[in-house]
TrEMBL record:
Belongs to the carbohydrate kinase PfkB family. Ribokinase subfamily. It comes from Lactobacillus kitasatonis. Activated by a monovalent cation that binds near, but not in, the active site. The most likely occupant of the site in vivo is potassium. Ion binding induces a conformational change that may alter substrate affinity. The lineage of its organism: Bacteria, Bacillati, Bacillota, Bacilli, Lactobacillales. GO terms for molecular function: ribokinase activity. It is found in: Cytoplasm. Residues 298-308 have a biased composition (Basic and acidic residues). Pathway: Carbohydrate metabolism; D-ribose degradation; D-ribose 5-phosphate from beta-D-ribopyranose: step 2/2. Residues 1-296 form the Carbohydrate kinase PfkB domain. Its cofactor is Mg(2+). Gene3D superfamilies: 3.40.1190.20. It is an enzyme of class 2 (transferase). This is Ribokinase. Homodimer.
Length: 308
């Protein structure tokens, strides 16, 4: 599949690098402050574009310089931003991250304009949703908009992929009804099913529970252990590539963008698409940052050829 629409969030990520987290009431100095583009939607759109798909992003940014920065970043990676609109008087989404020396982080998100996306915005992009192969969404923009988008896409016979992140307590039944593939990570899956993931057997039980919600195809990503696939035709754990990870931020977003881009329209090559996605993520985790770490299609192809 090579024509992808991503509906979702974009944020500017400001990271305060610190030795240790401050205690309540304490004042400390940062060792560094860095800024980068982020947001699950934007990351997944960039992964799809870098994987060679013709990619559109549907999103709202604020009337500020951050909005211009985000749009510029997306374009620089080849994402079409025709449907990235500006909400007057709103701020662009922003994630404030504190990262300690042990690599742990605290994140506070100001959703800003991400929550201003409306069903009217989708109608403006109606031709796109009706004609593109696949639509991907997450939970960092309004759920009613995602539901409306998936309904339009299914009516047009297109593939819908839901990344239920960040985790929520109850996914609306109507959204599940229009979802072809659900792709949580282990934490999100456990939150939906109530079953903690410890091994292959609990992955299988989680997948079963997700099927019971009415979704035929499930992929649960499981960090450096791989990705569990469960469809009517295949049930397997695609192992992760053994690499020295430097920064796993954006591993899941890379996986989703690459998987969607490489999946056939009849979904007949689930396992193969997951293997390519896994290869792409394994390259991303060896580099710093989310968006800059996502490899290009050529880099992934080369890495796979080198293994043969
Ligand atoms: P994030 O929130 O950090 O973007 P995530 O929790 O959504 O990631 P993960 O399940 O951690 O997603 O990772 C997605 C995929 O990336 C995994 O299924 C695996 O293929 C690959 N991956 C993740 N971590 C590693 C690692 N340390 N080494 C190799 N591959 C990895």
């Amino acid at each position: 599949m090579k024509k992808i629409v991503v509906i979702g969030s974009s944020n500017v990520d400001t990271t305060l690098h610190v030795k240790d987290f401050p205690k309540p009431g304490e004042t400390i100095n940062a060792t560094d402050v860095t800024t980068a583009g982020g947001g699950k939607g934007a990351n997944q759109a960039i992964a799809a574009a870098k994987s060679g798909a013709e990619t559109y992003f549907i999103n709202r940014v604020g009337e500020d310089s951050d909005g211009g920065y985000i749009t510029h970043q997306l374009k620089s990676y080849g994402v079409d931003t025709t449907y990235v609109q500006t909400t007057m008087g709103a701020k662009t989404g922003h994630a404030y991250i504190t990262l300690n020396e042990a690599g742990q982080n605290d994140i506070i998100i100001d959703h800003g304009a991400n929550y201003e996306l409306t069903v009217e915005d989708l109608k403006a992009a109606g031709d796109l949703i009706n004609n593109w192969d696949c639509i991907i969404a997450q939970f960092e923009t309004p759920i009613d908009v995602t539901t409306a988008a998936f309904k339009m896409a299914k009516k047009a016979g297109k593939i819908t992929i839901l990344n239920p992140a960040p985790a929520i307590d109850k996914i609306p039944d109507e959204l599940l009804k229009y979802t072809d593939i659900i792709m949580p990570n282990e934490t999100e899956s456990a939150k939906i099913t109530g079953i903690p993931i410890k091994d292959k057997s609990t992955l299988a039980t989680n997948a079963e529970k997700l099927h019971l919600l009415g979704v035929k195809n499930v992929i649960i990503t499981y960090g450096d252990k791989g990705a569990y696939i469960s469809t009517p035709d295949v049930e397997t754990l695609v192992p992760a590539y053994k690499v020295e990870a430097t920064d796993t931020t954006g591993a899941g977003d890379t996986f989703i963008g690459y998987f969607a881009s490489n999946l056939n329209a009849d979904m007949s090559n689930f396992e193969e698409a997951a293997k390519i996605a896994s290869r792409a993520s394994s390259i991303a985790v060896q580099r710093l940052g989310a968006q800059p770490s996502i490899p290009t299609e050529q880099e992934v192809k080369q890495a796979m050829e080198d293994e043969e």
